[in-house]
C-alpha cells in the first residue's frame, strides 16, 4: 500500500512538473511577444513621426533659403547659408549625441523590458 502511494505521488509530481514547465514556457513566449510588439510599435511610431518632421523641415528649409536668397539677391547664396546652418547644427549634435540619443532610448527600452 505504501509503495503504491509513493508511486502515485511520484506520478503526480512528474505531471505537475511537466505542467509547470509548459506553463512557464507559454508565459515567457507571451512576454517575449509583448516586448517585441511594444518595441516594434515604438520604432514604427518614431519612424512615422521622423518622416513627417523631415518633410516639414525640407519645405521650411527651401522656403527659408528662398527668403534669404531674396534678401541677399542670390538664391544660390541663400541655399548655401541654409546648408551652413545645417552643417553647424550637425556638428553640435555630433558633440552631444550621447546625451540626446542614447539616454532616452536606453530609458524607454528599459521601461519596456523591466517595468512590465
Order of secondary-structure elements:
HHH
What summary fits the major beta sheet? none
The protein's oligomeric status is single chain
Uncertain regions: pLDDT < 50 for 5+ in a row?
Answer: none
> Strand portion, in percent?
under 5%
Percentage of residues assigned to helices: over 70%
Distance between the termini: 49 Å
With helices defined by DSSP (H or I, 4 residues minimum), what is the helix count?
3
Q: Total strand count, please? A: 0
The chain-level structural class is: mainly alpha
The general outline is rod-shaped
3D structure, described in words:
The chain contains three helices and no strands. With 116 residues, the protein is an all-alpha fold. Helix 1 (2-72) runs antiparallel to helix 2 (75-95). It is rod-shaped and about 105 Å long. The relative contact order is 0.06.
Brief descriptors of the model:
single chain; 116 residues; mainly alpha; 3 helices; 0% strand; rod-shaped
